[in-house]
Amino acid sequence: MLSYPSVIPVSTQTLRELTRIIRTHRRAIGSRWRRLSPQRQALLTLAHLRNGDTYHRLAAGFGIAVATVCRYLHETITLLAHQAPTLTDALRRLARTRHNYTIIDGTVVRIDRVAANKPFFSGKHRYHGINFQALTDPDGQLLWLSPGLPGAINDTAAARHHRICEQVRQAGLRLLADGGYDQVAPGVITPYRNRRNRHQPKRELGPAYKAANNALARVRSRGERGFATLKNWRVLTRARCSTHRVTTLAHAILTLEHLPN
Known about the structure:
The chain is α+β, with helices and mostly antiparallel strands. It contains eleven helices and six strands. Strands 1, 2, 3, 4, 5 and 6 form a six-stranded mixed beta sheet that branches. Strand 2 (121-122) and strand 3 form a beta hairpin. It is elongated, with a radius of gyration of 21 Å. One of its GO terms (molecular function) is metal ion binding. This is Transposase. Residues 104-256 form the DDE Tnp4 domain.
């Protein structure tokens, strides 16, 4: 077996913060001795999440058994996922920054495990996946990530399921979205459309409507940075775990993104 040096594109401050979380957890449960120190366990977790390294590669690189890798990763990822901000926490944080709007967007994380084919198959993306809804601030920083839903559910239905629009409105904020959220709820700002549904002929939008759509697109485009940041963690490129575990992975990454850098 060959080995080679590699890097993890994560700051050392993130490693220190994750090490502190693991060390605090070990003290709380009274864990005395482990094969890996808290820092090495933190490095193991970051290598899996950021680089997408498999259990067998990590076991060979860290000199431990595959079962030990699985146990360490599940412990750390679950610990991080429990610290992920809720929707209420995210809206309160946004309100403290004196912003008056937030941006919603959705994505489908590809998976290769399904409990049943049909519920997880996304007709839009043409593959099986998990639907996630996210809120970002006006600068594109990821604030909140929803629990995952089967990929067959579209963005509008997912937003209604999580009651995102109602909670944003109760917080006194406006919600900006793309055309996929058309008529999701009153007060949500979406682009003007050239037809109401696919059964009607297209009509040409006037200059004022086009200018409004362009202005909305410029503001909303910053929200794309949130998912771009999320998908930098290669474990979500194609999740090779149980469908019930994908939400835990995504929320653990959200917690890491909120750690001090």
